[in-house]
Structure formats: structure tokens, C-alpha cells
Amino acid sequence: MTIANECIEIQVDSRRLLDDRLNDAVQGLQRVAMLTGTHGILLTRHKPGHYTAALSDQVPFGMTRELIH
């Protein structure tokens, strides 16, 4: 289960922007995850240029995983 209020939506049309936005999202979520120590980060690719980054109890703390729909 993902914590709904800790989800960041990312929509871009350039690879450089995508890398920057994903890095920013992961860094922000890492700071939040450190407060509880119970959730990892799940990056989900919904379609080209459309991603979400979220804290998830399905990902071990300290890990980041990618899911492609």
C-alpha cells in the first residue's frame, strides 16, 4: 500500500527534465521516509514522460524500485 499524500506526479517531454524531476522527487521522498524508517520509494512509469514517485510499504526502507505499467 502506498501512502497517498506522499505521491509526486511527474509529466515531462524531455529526457533531461525527466532525470531532474525524478531525482528531485526521490530526494524529497527520502527526507520524508527518514522520519518513519518504514517505507521505500516506488517509481511508476505510466506512459512515456508520465511517472509517479511515492512512498510505499511494499518497498523496503532504504530502497527505490521502478514499476513499468
Observed structural traits:
69 residues; alpha+beta; four-stranded mixed sheet; 1 helix; 4 strands; globular
Report on this model:
The chain has 69 residues and is an alpha+beta fold. It has one domain (2-68). The protein is built from 1 helix and 4 strands. It has one helix at residues 15-36; strands at 2-11, 40-47, 50-56, 64-68. The longest helix has 22 residues, at 15-36.
Could you write a compact summary of the structure shown?
This protein has 69 residues and is an alpha+beta fold. The protein has one helix spanning 15-36, and strands at residues 2-11, 40-47, 50-56, 64-68.
Write the layout of secondary structure elements.
Elements: E1 2-11, H1 15-36, E2 40-47, E3 50-56, E4 64-68
Parallel strand pairs: 2-4
Antiparallel strand pairs: 1-3, 2-3
State Rg: 11 Å
User: Low-confidence spans: pLDDT under 50, at least 5 residues?
Assistant: none
Structural class assignment: alpha+beta
Count of helical segments?
A: 1
- Give a quick account of the main beta sheet: strands, pairing sense, barrel closure: 4 strands, mixed
Write down the overall geometry.
globular
Give the domain tally. 1
Work out the helicity level: 25-40%
